[in-house]
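worker-03 picked up job from queue 'complexes'. Input manifest follows; two sequence lines, order preserved.
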Amino acid sequence: MQGSRFRDGVRAASPLAIAPVLFGASFGLLAVDAGMSWAGAILMSATTFAGSAQFAAASILDSGGGAAAAIVAAVLLNARYVPLSLSVASIFPGSRKRRLVEAQLIVDESWALAGRTGRFEYAVLIGVGVLFYVLWVGGTALGTVVGDLLDPEAIGLDAAFPALFLALLAPYLRTRRAVATAVAAGAITLVLLPFTPAGVPIVAASLASLIGLRR
Amino acid sequence: MTWLVIAVVGAVTILFKASGPVLLGGRELTPRVSSVVEVLAPAMLAALVVTQTVGGDRELVFDERLAGIAAGALAIRLRAPLLLVMVVAAATAALIRLF
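worker-03 finished. Artifact:
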């Protein structure tokens, strides 16, 4: 049962598999340009495993921005993983140590696909997470050796992901409370985007979930 | 210096991701907490949609992604499966970039 749900996750994600490979390769290339060794680039993909923060850190280093600026930007970008992680806290079984390890498979895509039925499914999160992890780290390794495989923007991948998140948002919008929360979160993000460092708007938008306290 | 960045960012991200399952996991949530957690998913999805559609470097950027997501939204409206929604959005953005 668990095994088949795991495979469901992998199957749901496999058409998306080209993305982590291409973005991973772009990161590998950028990281080496920014002065990381190939081992450093791969280690970062293996431990941080979060595309936007890694790109931000590497491009700041690349433009001579310094370690402190790179760390602050990446940490702010990844702060959204606190609310994401809280939302799926109850689906992780087993010991504390096992939960610590398996929680590392939480990325935007695995988290979003795991909730596609409106209830978070552990096996889907793990299945998608493992697939993306292997391809992200592998793509990074490829990128440090062969450079850019293909420009993700040329094939429109940067438009595919917001559309994916929109498609996954749609089924939640059945209750008035969920609609109000989504609208408020979107508005907070839109207003803050021009004025705050990247990452802050998404974290601030999580406050919209306090609407849940209203009866 | 790059090693410092790799180590600190990696360590902090690992803690962020583990926060929910390690601190809250295996525990019954009170009704007040779970009613907030319930709407956390639509809130975060909406925020991701907005940042990935018009997000730039401390600015709003209106580019081909907008046309892509508009086409994607139409596909969602017509009950297209997930993959088709993504292909429609990507192809729309890519085609506009070609011309």
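worker-03 released lock.
The mean pLDDT of chain B is 91.
Chain B touches chain A through 77 residues (CB under 8 Å).
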